[in-house]
Specification:
By secondary structure, this protein is mainly alpha-helical. It has one domain. The protein has helices spanning 3-18, 22-29, 53-69; strands spanning 32-34, 45-47. It is elongated and about 35 Å long.
């Protein structure tokens, strides 16, 4: 999976479960940062969500869940 694919997956899940708009969630998620697999062999990506406390908490919970199924991004 790519970082754009991960963002699409995050947006789809957040939109389905919590409403609002695609634009809202894309802006709140922000970019996915990729790291070298040499220095981050277990999970090579991270996101730093912004927005309301509720939105950040929802995104962080989903990020934690998706790290188990998609630990490595291309």
């Amino acid at each position: 999976m790519t970082s754009e694919g991960m963002i699409d997956l995050l947006v789809a899940r957040l939109l389905r479960d919590h409403g609002k708009s695609k634009h809202h969630w894309r802006k709140a998620i922000g970019p996915i940062r990729l790291y070298s697999r040499a220095t981050h062999p277990h999970c090579n990506w991270a996101a730093v969500p912004t927005g309301s406390i509720r939105d950040v908490a929802l995104i962080e919970d989903l990020l934690d869940d998706l790290r188990f199924t998609h630990p490595i991004l291309a």
